[in-house]
């Protein structure tokens, strides 16, 4: 029980590993005012401090600390994204996890999501269960401590296709539900577009991997390439991306090109993946 390596993942949302992986938010690191005056630590300094605290807490029980997501891609933006961390421990026994409880609470108070924990055997056997997350993190991550847990990870294309289809269709249904509830409320509708964007961006990168296309770390390049291959207007997605980066509220009407174009892009992407051949 609890043998091997455990994983704590800090992501954008609480819930399943899938939700954490898919809904990680993009940021760009800059200094920000500290609570007691002066400048606060940069995002890399905060990530390194967290890694150092883990080393002090777990010692030899700590195997790896990995930074992934927008910070690893060089697109971190303060006030918009989380710091996404992957931490490997030797075991996941309650007594071991409890030692990191205070640190996890402090990390969450800083605006980061609480850690998600997996065990070592779970980690080595989970590429088939979470292929999107494994492929996306494998493509952009930085080792802050220890060994690289992705060095020998191989993501099966068929597992990736099946999860991508499942997630796209599920998120499309959730988007429709949100549209149904917010169609007459422009402020809520705009928030829905911005809030859902990062999840679809991860899925767009997955679509490119499935298509055998190069996957850029740059969000605009990803949007342009998926739009070209799938066949939709990239304009609405670019507008949402720019609003998100600028922290500018969107208040679109339900029949605006921004809203209908975004829904159309998602629908066309779902159809595209649905037509991809099985491995």
Widest beta sheet: strand line-up = 4-1-3-2-5
Beta-strand proportion: 5-15%
Cα gyration radius (Å): 19 Å
Q: Give me the count of strands.
A: 5
Give the tally of structural domains: 2
Structural class: alpha+beta
What's the gist of this structure?
By secondary structure, this protein is an alpha+beta fold. Helix content is 53%, strand content 10%. It has helices at 17-22, 43-58, 70-73, 94-99, 101-109, 120-124, 131-139, 157-182, 186-210, 219-230, 235-246, 257-274; strands spanning 6-10, 62-68, 84-89, 115-118, 141-146.
Features:
single chain; alpha+beta; 2 domains; five-stranded antiparallel β-sheet; 12 helices; 53% helix; globular
What does this structure look like?
- By secondary structure, the protein is α+β, with helices and mostly antiparallel strands.
- The protein has 2 domains: 6-146, no CATH class; 157-274.
- Helices cover 53% and strands 10% of the residues.
- The protein has helices at 17-22, 43-58, 70-73, 94-99, 101-109, 120-124, 131-139, 157-182, 186-210, 219-230, 235-246, 257-274, and strands spanning 6-10, 62-68, 84-89, 115-118, 141-146.
- A 5-stranded antiparallel β-sheet has the order 4-1-3-2-5.
- Helix 8 (157-182) runs antiparallel to helix 9 (186-210) and helix 9 packs parallel to helix 12.
- It is globular and about 55 Å long.
- The protein starts with 5 loop residues before the first strand and ends in a 5-residue tail after the last helix.
């Amino acid at each position: 029980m609890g043998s091997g390596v455990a994983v704590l993942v800090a992501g954008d949302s609480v819930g399943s590993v899938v939700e954490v992986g898919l809904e990680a938010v993009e940021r760009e690191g800059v200094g920000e005012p500290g609570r007691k005056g002066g400048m606060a630590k940069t995002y890399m300094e905060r990530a390194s401090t967290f890694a150092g605290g883990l080393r002090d807490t777990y010692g030899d029980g700590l195997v790896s600390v990995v930074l992934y997501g927008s910070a690893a891609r060089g697109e971190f933006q303060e006030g918009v994204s989380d710091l996404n961390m992957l931490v490997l421990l030797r075991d996941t026994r309650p007594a071991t996890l409890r030692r990191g409880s205070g640190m996890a609470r402090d990390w969450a108070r800083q605006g980061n999501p609480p850690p998600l924990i997996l065990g070592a055997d779970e980690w080595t056997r989970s590429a088939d269960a979470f292929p999107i997350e494994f492929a996306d993190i494998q493509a952009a991550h930085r080792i802050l401590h220890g060994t690289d847990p992705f060095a020998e990870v191989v993501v099966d294309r068929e597992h990736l296709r099946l999860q991508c289809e499942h997630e796209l269709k599920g998120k499309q249904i959730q988007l429709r539900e949100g549209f149904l509830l917010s169609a007459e409320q422009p402020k809520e509708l705009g928030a829905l577009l911005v809030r859902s964007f990062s999840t679809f961006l991860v899925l767009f990168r997955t679509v490119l991997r499935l298509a055998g296309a190069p996957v850029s770390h740059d969000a605009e390049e990803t949007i342009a390439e998926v739009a070209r291959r799938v066949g939709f207007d990239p304009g609405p997605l670019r507008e949402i991306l720019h609003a998100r980066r600028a922290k500018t509220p969107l208040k679109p009407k339900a029949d605006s090109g921004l809203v209908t174009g975004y829904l159309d892009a998602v629908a066309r992407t779902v159809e595209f993946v649905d037509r991809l051949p099985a491995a």
